[in-house]
Write a structure and sequence with these properties.
The complex is a heterodimer of chains A (229) and B (455). Chain A is an all-alpha fold and 229 residues long. Chain A is 28% helix and 2% strand. Chain A has two domains: 1-97, no CATH class; 107-217, Cytochrome c-like domain (Cytochrome Bc1 Complex, Chain D, domain 2). Chain A has helices spanning 67-74, 81-85, 107-112, 128-140, 165-174, 188-201, 211-217; strands at 147-148, 152-153. In chain A, helix 4 crosses helix 6 (188-201) and helix 5 packs across helix 6 (188-201). The two termini of chain A are 56 Å apart. Chain B has helices at 53-61, 91-112, 121-134, 147-153, 175-181, 184-191, 208-217, 266-269, 278-284, 303-306, 346-353, 357-368, 375-378, 402-413, 433-454, and strands at 3-4, 16-18, 22-24, 30-32, 40-42, 66-69, 77-79, 89-90, 155-157, 168-169, 200-203, 222-223, 226-233, 238-244, 253-257, 260-262, 273-274, 293-299, 313-317, 323-326, 337-344, 379-386, 419-421. In chain B, a hairpin with a 4-residue loop joins strand 13 and strand 14. In chain B, helix 9 (278-284) crosses helix 14 (402-413). Chain B is globular and about 80 Å long. The two termini of chain B are 18 Å apart. The chains are: A mainly alpha (229), B alpha+beta (455). Chains A and B meet through helix 1, helix 4, strand 1 and strand 2 of A and strand 8, strand 9, helix 8, helix 11 and helix 12 of B.
Chain lengths: 229, 455
């Protein structure tokens, strides 16, 4: 019988009994455990999981940001004292992920979800088209064509109701029937911009929409949502 | 009793996407679910709070098997893009540290006599004793790393056996970093609220099992693919016109009954010809439908379990994906698993609505890999539900405010001659199935009373 080596670097449970070493087990089950929590150290996983890498140097009083993930996963106990004395490694190859702003594959999303590099969500742009694409388009569709299911979303393009900028502003501020209010999600400037886009770009109306137009219609609005999930 | 159902299945928003399912969303894009057999994704409701008695009543009655749903897992993460260099921190550690620091500060105030006008001498001693134990403070009432804090927030080297290394307590997060991160808010926003308290449950095999059970029990009453076009009541009854949902230009059929319980979502009902009172029509038009989206991501292996020792629970983040939820079922199994890779409301939700199904998956992967770098290598397939793009709902759930409730709620829920409305929108528990069932029970009760009175 081979003696099973409890080793986080290469967990193994092969219990072949070819060798003539005899062990006497007394009192209960054989506790030669496969450490399933340590699969990250299997050689097969190297492409995703870190080759053991050196954690950031800890200076006095500095806090190891990766410690929480690392320690909660294997807690060091499965390493020998000698191994523990060596520089620790991260269980996940965090270096494989570039900084958000340097990550080419992220750029599209950083534009769509502007503010996300700062951990913020919201509408921050004052570009009318982008505001339209990021909010109205979800229901009224990209080109303002609307949609028809069990009910319908009215088209916003080529719609004579869009002639009145005040109508558009009012609907954006207050919502209309099933449509939620954008009162709290957009500033006066943003509502003016998205109104202008719907009024002029999706239709060919030529009024100029100003922030003052929006301010004029904005009013104290009762809280409009329940935090239900 | 006749039930007219718009779809070809019962259950409505209580809906599970299984391997091989697909649907067409508004705008024409097809959403597929190409998971391995046995994997599923709850696009709508996904967890049942312990006090949702009516849901459990019917689950038990109809034999819907339930299993625990893990909302709170101390090993799941809290994540803030610009804190801890983007490294997620485990919930249990954050929670212990908050308790520790709050206890330390409060005991300082007590010891300084700052609370002498509110706390008498005897209570002061008990308070200090409690704070010391609850916050795991040292003899000087300070929250600092010790063997004791290790017992609570965990270890950097866990206690072992034989000649394994000695246990070492983990290091608390410095208070300023902790406060600065804002993670505290996750505790009271997402964990201590009564709807998230343990034990929560989920149906085995997906939330759709509840709708399936109702459908099975009521099968003989249901007409599927029936799109209601007109609801007309008169002195003696209610006549409903409907067409085939799939070919609306075909002949109009009618069905007549003494009473009508209408559960059509208000986002759609407001567009249907229905002769109820003017105040009721106003009430129907006063309930906007919230935006929400979910993305399900299937991975080749359960790396959150195998690498990071996360079994169930939810990671909350300030990224646009809002949260990542780990499956509460099939733990410790090898092979693939499905994460809820994004689920949120608000502005990010409107942005997700406007993405194509493929883009939704890509966005969820791009942001989620900030927390789990394994995403890139392990991704297998994905699916999504953007509720405003669902043809039969046009939104997620009815939004009420205090003022709209005061003005419209009772009118919406009252019987209007021979018609009464029911659904989550007619409840004080919006978006939850419990609200739907309680609303239905209440509508049936009042209808019964009225019918009895009329003889």
């Amino acid at each position: 019988m081979n003696i099973v080596v409890v080793n986080p670097i290469k967990p193994s449970t092969s219990l072949s009994s070819g060798k003539a070493i005899t062990m006497l087990m007394v009192g209960g089950s054989i506790a030669l455990t496969m450490l399933s929590g340590c699969s990250q150290y299997k050689a097969e996983n190297v492409a995703t999981i870190a080759n053991p890498q050196t954690a950031p140097m800890l200076f006095n009083n500095s806090f190891d940001n990766q410690a929480s993930r690392n320690q909660g996963a294997w807690g060091g106990v499965y390493m020998s004292r000698a191994e523990l004395a060596e520089p620790t490694s991260n269980i996940i190859d965090v270096r494989s992920i570039p900084k958000m702003s340097d990550d080419a594959s992220m750029q599209k999303w950083l534009t769509k979800f502007e503010g996300s590099t700062q951990g913020k969500t919201g509408f921050f742009t004052t570009n009318g088209k982008k505001l339209y694409d990021d909010s109205c388009a979800g229901c009224h569709m990209q080109k303002g064509e609307g949609a028809q299911g069990a009910g319908y979303y009215p088209p916003l393009a080529n719609n004579s109701k869009m002639q009145s900028k005040y109508y558009i502003i009012s609907v954006v501020i207050n919502g209309l029937r099933g449509m939620p209010s954008f009162h709290r999600m957009m500033s006066d400037e943003q509502i003016a911009a998205v109104t202008q886009y719907v009024h002029s770009n999706l239709n060919n109306f030529t009024d100029i929409v100003t922030t003052a137009n929006v301010a004029q219609l904005r009013h104290d609005f009762p809280p409009g949502s329940d935090p239900s999930e | 009793m006749t039930v007219l159902e718009y779809q070809n299945r019962g259950g409505g928003r209580s809906w599970t996407l299984n391997s091989g399912d697909k649907y067409t969303e508004l705008g024409g894009a097809e959403v597929t679910c190409d998971f391995e057999k046995g994997n599923y994704f709850n696009g709508g409701p996904w967890r049942l709070p312990i006090h949702h008695y009516a849901v459990f009543h019917y689950c038990k009655k109809f034999g819907v098997a339930l299993q625990p749903f893990i909302q709170t897992n101390d090993r799941a993460y809290l994540h803030r893009t610009n804190h801890f260099n983007g490294a997620p921190q485990r919930l249990g550690e954050v929670q212990n540290d908050i308790r520790g620091y709050v206890s330390e500060l409060l005991s300082k105030a007590v010891n300084k006599g700052s609370l002498d006008s509110t706390v008498n001498k005897e209570d002061k001693e008990k308070l200090l004793e409690g704070l010391k134990g609850w916050g795991v403070l040292d003899t000087n009432y300070r929250y600092v790393k010790s063997h004791e804090t290790g017992k609570h927030r965990g270890y950097s080297v866990y206690p072992g056996g034989g000649l394994m290394p000695d246990a070492k307590p983990s290091t608390p997060i410095p208070m300023d970093k902790l406060l600065d991160s804002g993670m505290w808010s996750d505790i009271y926003t997402n964990y201590t609220v009564h709807v998230h308290q343990p034990t929560m449950f989920q149906p085995v095999g997906g939330m759709g099992k509840i709708g399936d059970a109702f459908t099975r029990e009521c099968r003989e009453m249901i007409t599927f693919n029936a799109k209601v076009t007109k609801i007309n009541q008169d002195e003696t009854g209610v006549t409903i016109d409907y067409v085939d949902s799939n070919s609306p230009d075909n002949e109009v059929k009618t069905v007549r009954a003494d009473w009508c319980i209408c559960t059509i979502l208000l986002s759609i009902l407001t567009q249907i010809d229905i002769n109820v009172s003017a105040p009721m029509k106003q009430a129907m038009a006063a309930v906007p439908y919230d935006s929400s989206y979910k993305v399900g991501l299937e991975f080749k292996r359960r790396f959150w379990e195998e690498d990071e020792w996360i079994y169930g629970g939810i990671t909350y983040t300030d990224l646009p994906i809002t949260q990542i939820s780990y499956p509460s079922q099939d733990m410790f199994s090898s092979g693939s698993g499905v994460l809820l890779g994004a689920y949120g409301f608000g502005e990010a939700s409107y942005k997700f609505n406007s993405l194509t199904p493929k883009e939704r998956i890509n966005a969820a992967l791009a942001y989620g890999k900030r927390i789990h770098p394994q995403y890139t290598k392990e991704f297998r397939s994905g699916t999504s539900v953007a509720w405003h793009r669902i043809p039969w709902s046009l939104g997620c759930y009815g939004i009420w405010s205090e003022s709209s409730r005061e003005q419209y709620y009772d009118t919406l829920c009252e019987i209007n001659h021979r018609i009464v409305l029911a659904g989550e929108h007619c409840s004080h528990i919006p978006a939850w199935q419990e609200g739907t069932i309680l609303s239905g029970m209440d509508a049936a009760k009042h209808l019964h009373q009225k019918a009895k009175k009329l003889g």
